[in-house]
Amino acid sequence: MNKKGFSITEIILVLALIAIIFGFSALYYQSSQIRSDLNAQVNLIVNEIRLLRSNVISGLTTQPTSIKLDEDKYIKFFGDIYDPENENNVITELPPTIKITDINLNQGEQQIVFQSPNGITENFGNFTLKSENINHSITIDINEIGTINY
User: Fold this and answer.
1) Residue 16 maps to a domain
2) What is the CATH number of the domain that holds 80?
3) Most buried residue, 31, 67, 82, 122, by CB count within 10 Å?
4) Who has greater pLDDT, 72 or 28?
5) In a domain, 1, yes or no
6) 89-120 tens-digit pLDDT
7) Which residues contact 100 (CB under 8 A, 6 or more apart)?
8) Beta-carbon neighbour count of residue 137 at 10 Å?
9) 2 in any annotated domain
10) Is 94 domain-assigned?
11) Does the reported pTM lie above 0.70?
12) Which helix (H) or strand (E) holds 31?
């Protein structure tokens, strides 16, 4: 007798292989998305810091511009002392998969202050943006004259 078609074992085997391939691709997609979020946040915070420094150097503001680093957010503010009650503070929340860790700034501070008119900072050092989910981190270095490397 000549049967045409697939046996139940062949169908189950093919479905199992498809499920395994789909599972691996979903994991890869998730880690790629988190890595993309981390890179985007690094670029965003670096550009924000560069803009703060540029505003001081260009004379757009005569007062210091600053950024305060917390584990799950960073806050931009004017002046050299952070006031949490100031309405002009700009708070940027990080995605839940990304944290600011290992803040190693000069003078043990958690804020970077750019002084007018030359944009230098006494709070130079580095900090790290890290994703625990994929165990990947990027360290951002700020030197005495306010330039950034990462």
Assistant:
1) yes
2) 3.55.40.10
3) 67
4) 72
5) no
6) 999 999 999 999 999 999 888 999 999 889 99
7) 69, 70, 71, 72, 74, 94, 127, 128, 129, 130
8) 16
9) no
10) yes
11) yes
12) helix 8-58
**What is the count of structural domains for the chain?**
1
35-82 pLDDT, tens digit per residue, is 899 999 999 999 999 999 999 999 999 899 999 999 999 999 999 899
Q: Output the six-digit token pair for 148.
A: 């950034």
The DSSP-derived string for 34-94 is: HHHHHHHHHHHHHHHHHHHHHHHHHTS-SS-EEEEE-SSEEEEEESSS--TT-TT-EEEEP
Amino acid at 50: R
Residue 31: give the domain boundaries: 8-149
Which residue in this structure is represented by tokens 């074992």? 9
In which band, very low, low, confident or very high, does the pLDDT at 1 lie, cut at 50, 70 and 90?
Answer: low
Q: Which residue reads 């100031």 in tokens?
A: 86
Q: Which residues of 51-72 are buried (b: 16+ CB within 10 A; e: fewer)?
A: ebbebbeeeeeeebbbbbbeee
